[in-house]
């Protein structure tokens, strides 16, 4: 109990004032937890506040159009989170009468809700004594107790969850869970933590054994795939353009983009001009074509590096169902395309 008491005392003195910590409303907590998956607090907070302003209840989110949800999510990445968020809101609102499940096991049945998110909602909203296990928890516990279990293994989560449950004061699950995550986020950080000011600097096993930099152990490395995207930014006599919706499952599903030519490697002007003739625009009279940037924009996703070029193409006549610049800005785009449109 010394570990837990010290940790909670540290938390009460050092915790950040975050908007979702001032409520036990499961809707707000669920929303924040989905947003904070794969996203830093500083980046996610403005999005959380915007969503709560536009969709103050689960009914408001459920009744929204998916494109409105994706537009508001624009820039957060991992867009499947937003689509699952919308579907889950509809299920909770229309099938469950707006009432979120009140137990960890029931919460796990919601689309887009995994073990970590279910534990967070169950403990923060309903005070169910279930431990959260995220990267922060892995790091804090592996260092304090000198645990060399490879956290990439499927069995690791069970091992760390069991230890966290053992340490958790059963009458304070929310505070304990918040405390251990906050400690990992602010004090026991991944690289070069300042152990000289740590409350555990006399009891941390990794510090005593000079193993802080080696823990936690994680062997799995993600293979990164390189892809080469050439976007055709067409402009007609009315200065209208054309876009398309990404309908195939994968990155950016249901977001919009300019017509795309994907190549095996980075290609030059002559190659794209040749491929353009075989595209839907081959039948149009092309007045001019230029590359927006000499160098590709490299947009890094967790498992893919996209090498993106924008090719500006001026055609004679009018495009059928062309979109003007103001209307263009209302569609949900991947952030790299949104940024290109904004600077035009």
UniProtKB/TrEMBL annotation:
Keyword Iron assigned to the entry: answer is yes
Q: Which SMART domains match?
A: ENDO3c
Q: Which cofactor does it need?
A: [4Fe-4S] cluster
Q: How is the cofactor bound?
A: Binds 1 [4Fe-4S] cluster.
| A GO molecular-function descriptor | purine-specific mismatch base pair DNA N-glycosylase activity
One matching Pfam family is HhH-GPD
Q: What is its EC number?
A: 3.2.2.31
Signal peptide span per the entry?
Answer: none
Print the keywords alphabetically: 4Fe-4S, DNA damage, DNA repair, Glycosidase, Hydrolase, Iron, Iron-sulfur, Metal-binding
For biological process, the GO terms are: base-excision repair; mismatch repair
Is the Hydrolase keyword given for this protein? yes
Domain HhH-GPD, first and last residues per copy: 35-186
Known role: Adenine glycosylase active on G-A mispairs. MutY also corrects error-prone DNA synthesis past GO lesions which are due to the oxidatively damaged form of guanine: 7,8-dihydro-8-oxoguanine (8-oxo-dGTP).
**Assigned protein family:** Belongs to the Nth/MutY family.
Which protein are we looking at?
Adenine DNA glycosylase
What is the organism field in this record? Flavobacterium granuli
């Amino acid at each position: 109990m010394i570990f837990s008491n010290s940790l909670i005392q540290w938390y009460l003195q050092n915790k950040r004032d975050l908007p979702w910590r001032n409520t036990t409303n499961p809707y707000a907590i669920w929303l924040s937890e989905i947003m904070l998956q794969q996203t830093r607090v500083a980046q996610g907070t403005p999005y959380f506040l915007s969503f709560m302003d536009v969709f103050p209840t689960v009914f408001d989110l459920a009744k929204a159009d998916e494109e409105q949800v994706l537009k508001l999510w624009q820039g957060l990445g991992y867009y499947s989170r937003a689509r699952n968020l919308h579907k889950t809101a509809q299920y909770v609102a229309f099938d469950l009468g707006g009432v979120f499940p009140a137990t960890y096991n029931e919460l796990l049945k919601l689309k887009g809700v995994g073990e970590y998110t279910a534990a967070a909602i169950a403990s923060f909203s309903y005070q169910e004594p279930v431990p959260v296990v995220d990267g922060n928890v892995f790091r804090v516990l592996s260092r304090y107790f000198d645990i060399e279990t490879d956290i990439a293994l499927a069995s690791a989560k069970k091992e760390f969850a069991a230890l966290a449950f053992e340490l958790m004061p059963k009458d304070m699950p929310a505070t304990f869970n918040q405390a251990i995550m906050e400690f990992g986020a602010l004090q026991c950080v991944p690289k070069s933590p300042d152990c000289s000011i740590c409350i555990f600097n006399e009891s941390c096993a990794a510090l005593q054994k000079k193993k802080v930099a080696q823990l936690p152990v994680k062997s799995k490395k993600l293979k990164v795939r390189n892809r080469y995207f050439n976007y055709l930014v067409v402009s007609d006599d009315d200065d209208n353009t054309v876009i398309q919706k990404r309908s195939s499952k994968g990155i950016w599903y249901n977001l919009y983009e300019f017509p795309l030519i994907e190549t095996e490697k980075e290609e030059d002007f002559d190659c794209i001009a040749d491929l353009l003739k075989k595209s839907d625009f081959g039948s149009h009279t092309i007045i001019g074509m230029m590359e927006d940037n000499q160098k590709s924009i490299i947009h890094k996703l967790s498992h893919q590096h996209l090498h993106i070029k924008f090719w500006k193409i001026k055609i004679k006549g009018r495009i059928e169902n062309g979109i003007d610049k103001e209307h263009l800005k209302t569609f949900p785009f991947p952030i790299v395309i949104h940024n290109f449109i904004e600077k035009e």
